[in-house]
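The protein record filed here.
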Amino acid sequence: QVQLVESGGGLVQAVDSLRLSCAASGRSFSSYAMGWFRQAPGKEREFLAAISWSSGSTYYADSVKGRFTISIDNAKNTVLLQMNSLKPEDTAVYYCAARYDHWGGSYLPKRRDEYNYWGQGAQVTVSS
């Protein structure tokens, strides 16, 4: 059974940094694509970044490009999201997601309905 567990959320001040972790378990993820999304109150769930576990290729939403970095710690079977220069508008619940990577990294899923597995979410609050 696939399990994704996010951690690392919390309350930070604007311009601070934070690193979220997504611990993946239940199967081998070497052929999976992993994504990060967020959802602010009253808003749709928003795609942030994706990575192919096999190829390491990445893709970012324009809203976070240059500030957020997605990566994989293979030794810990964990997907990371490093968030720098945080702004109050980054306040949201952050979700990790996974799906089988049919494309070998040549395409990275960006829509919510492209992912099969989700974590429970981690709250990030950025104060001004």
